[in-house]
Specification:
CATH architecture of the largest domain: 3-Layer(aba) Sandwich
Strand content: 15-25%
CATH topology of the largest domain: Rossmann fold
Shape: globular
Number of helices: 8
Mean pLDDT: 86
Radius of gyration: 18 Å
Largest sheet: 5 strands, parallel
Length: 218
């Protein structure tokens, strides 16, 4: 699988590249955001982005550009900025994971494997039809009136959770565990943002807000 690493610390980038290549990943390094922006339409499975980058394009700028062009591509933030607000903002923008510097390259490899495993694991070959939407759970694709709808990985994971459990209420904390995993320690407000984005992209979904608790799909 193909990984793009955007990291301006040369020695760290080379070490990470070596560790990932031992796991048979193909790794390309970019030392700044401007250079990475030239490759937004490339076929790549995962981006590893540093927040703080030299020049005028930082990690936040990059994730916005990536999600606009290729929302299906996975992203891990790796940054020395370990403040809670940075984690939340990264997740709200569509990142799949966040790791704080200094980190062990082995830990990063494990996180890369976990993210990519979630991407390639298919739930079913069934096409689910709901309120005019055709949702292919295997190809992770959505059509509505001959139009393709693009969701990020987290948005699609949330949609699958709701589709497969119609009429079942989920608390915000439960959604966090189901979509982000048990090791996520950030605020549950990212759930509200994720629901808002899914509703905007798929307005015909009948998602009910349960005040003070969470959500369910009717």
């Amino acid at each position: 699988m193909k990984i793009y690493l955007v990291e301006d610390e040369f020695d760290l980038a080379q070490i990470v590249k070596k560790y990932l290549e031992k796991e048979d990943y193909q790794v390309t390094i970019f030392s700044n955001g401007e250079e990475a922006l030239k490759h937004l339409t490339d076929e790549v499975d995962l981006w590893i982005l540093d927040i703080m980058l030299p020049g005028d394009v930082n990690g936040y700028d990059l994730i916005k550009a990536i999600k606009e062009k290729r929302p299906e591509q996975a992203i891990i933030f790796a940054s020395a900025r370990d403040h809670e607000i940075d984690k939340i903002r990264g997740l709200e923008l569509g990142s799949d994971d966040y790791i704080a510097k200094p980190y062990s390259p082995r830990e990063l490899v494990l996180r890369v494997k976990a993210v990519l495993k979630r991407i390639v694991t298919t739930t079913s070959g069934v096409v689910v039809r709901y309120e005019g939407y055709e949702i292919n759970l295997e190809k992770r694709s959505i059509r509505f009136q001959e139009r393709h709808i693009k969701l990020t990985h987290k948005e699609f994971d949330l949609l699958v959770l709701l589709i497969e459990n119609k009429n079942t209420p989920f608390s915000r904390e439960n959604i966090l565990r189901k979509v982000w995993g048990n090791d996520y320690l950030g605020s549950n407000r990212v759930v509200d943002d994720l629901l808002r984005r899914v509703r905007n992209k798929m307005p015909h979904l009948k998602i009910e807000t349960i005040y003070g608790f969470g959500y369910r799909l009717l």
